[in-house]
Amino acid sequence: MACPFLRDVVDEEALVLRRAFRRERVFRDRLDPLAFPDDHLYERYRFSADGIRYLCRLLGPRIKHRTARSHALSVEQMVCVALRFFASGAFLYSVGDAEQLNKATICRTIRSVCLAIKALADVFISFPGHRRLCDIKEEFYRIAAPSGAHEADFVNRKSFHSINVQMVCNADCVISNVVAKWPGSVHDSRIFRASEIYQCLSQGEFSGVLLGDRGYGCQPFLLTPFTDPQEAQQAYNHAHARTRARVEMTFGLLKARFHCLHKLRVSPVRACDITVACAVLHNVACLRKERAPRVPPAMDWDNPTIFPDDDSGWLLRDQYVLNYFR
Q1: What is the largest distance, in Å, between two alpha-carbon atoms of the chain?
Q2: pLDDT digits (tens, 9 = 90+) for 208-219
Q3: Which among 165, 155, 157, 116 is positioned nearest to 264, based on CA atoms?
Q4: Are 158 and 182 in contact (CB under 8 A)?
Q5: Among candidate residues 214, 156, 164, the one with its CA nearest the CA of residue 187
Q6: Rounded distance, CA 294 to CA 271, Å?
Q7: What angle do CA 263, 267, 269 make, to 5 degrees?
Q8: What is the CA angle 209-212-214, rounded to 5?
């Protein structure tokens, strides 16, 4: 009798044995992920039903399977699988158990959706933003203008990450620039100097200034706090801190919305891709007015300065103090 596990089997009895040992494929009935109320969906996917449908229309052409063979996942199921991973940061098998799928399918699906979202980064993340530059400046001015007594809603500070991510945001916490490709040991200022936005700002392509912590060198286009402030400089530092808090709030919202960013169990390259994908989803959620998560306060981790201040940056900062804080 021939062995039943060889590829070319002629013996009839061997064929019978092969059929007996063959593992029958079982296709589980998968629930419609959108057939739940918005509270249920938000807890698991961080988006409402309308938000998920919007993402499906957006990503469908990039992730849809060409055929329905082997009960291929629908676009809605693929998007929900990726969103559950981003929102929970759970192990892949845990996401698979929740979605009634095996680990290999979960891994392929998350990767496919992640790359599709990342491909839309230039659409949803643009500097200086999706609104008029004068409106963006006006909103930041209202946060800590000397004539007003506005208190920041809450303040979040950075904590160290395996990947050091640079972000720029507007006053609504919408991300306008993200750089996610550097190891956590690389200094913030070095990342900024190597970024495309630094080149654009240094060449005068945009008006206005960015705000940075003491880890950055003071530049004409990036203002930092005074190290040992006097009376008027203290008012400037206070306004600087309250305004710059928006980018810390943005980091806090991003990590609260997508818990996977607290601890990614993937390679550095994939961690960078997931970070950009989450930034895109964050902007989609903000632009669509999805429910914002509560953000716990964090510690401050200002980096020591490694690049010297620019004299022209000092002059511009002093001019701001003279014009607005005396």
Answers
A1: 99
A2: 899 998 888 889
A3: 165
A4: no
A5: 164
A6: 24
A7: 110
A8: 135
CA 211, CA 188: separation in Å to the nearest integer? 13
CA–CA separation, 306 vs 303, rounded Å? 9
**Partner residues linked to 166 by β-bridges:** 179
Confidence of residue 311 (pLDDT cuts 50, 70, 90): low
CA dist 28 and 270 (Å) reads 29
Chain centroid to CA 208: how far?
Answer: 25
**DSSP string covering 158-187, please?**
----SEEEEEEE-TT--EEEEEEEEETTS-
Distance CA(84)–CA(46), nearest Å, equals 8
Structure token digits, residue 266: 């993937």
d(Cα 191, Cα 187) in Å, to the nearest integer? 6
Q: Mean pLDDT over residues 295-313, rounded?
A: 61
Q: How far apart are the first and last CA of the chain?
A: 99
**Is the confidence at residue 65, as pLDDT, over 70?**
yes
Rounded to whole angstroms, the Cα distance separating 183 from 206 reads: 28
Torsion sign, CA atoms 300, 301, 304, 309: negative
Residue closest to 131 by CA, chosen among 283, 285, 291 = 283
Q: Can you read off the two tokens belonging to residue 205?
A: 């392509």
The C-alpha atoms of residue 16 and residue 272 are separated, in whole angstroms, by: 51
Write down the pLDDT at residue 18: 62
**What does the H/E/C string look like for 73-142?**
CCHHHHHHHHHHHHHHCCCHHHHHHHHCCCHHHHHHHHHHHHHHHHCCHHHHCCCCCCCCHHHHHHHHHH
* Residue the block writes with tokens 């203008």: 145
